[in-house]
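Appendix C reproduces, verbatim, an entry submitted by the partner laboratory led by Prof. M.T., so that reviewers can inspect both the input and the predicted structure.
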Amino acid sequence: VQLQASGGGLVQAGGSLRLSCAASGYISSITVIGWYRQAPGKQRELVASITSRGSLSYADSVKGRFTISRDNAKNTLYLQMNSLKPEDTAVYYCNTESRTKINLWGQGTQVTVSS
């Protein structure tokens, strides 16, 4: 499956953004899919994930601020980001768990939060 992330941009602290990830295949059949981010000089980290059964998981740093969801009819994954902080600045990627295990990544989308 091919994944294309979009929706990033420049926003002030406290603002919101919604990221989208368009999949070329059936997103509902993907066992685990999520959003990852990589800030300059830091390792890539998992931000949020959703399983094929709908179970959600979030990094502690974004709990209560970010919401992951998917639209199976549109084969699209979303990440609603509210109350953004400067430390949320990073390149955001969507990916499946299986692709991360073989270090296969697509193009991310830049999110920049100004203070």
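The CA atoms of residues 26 and 64 lie 28 Å apart. Additional entries are available on request from the coordinating office.
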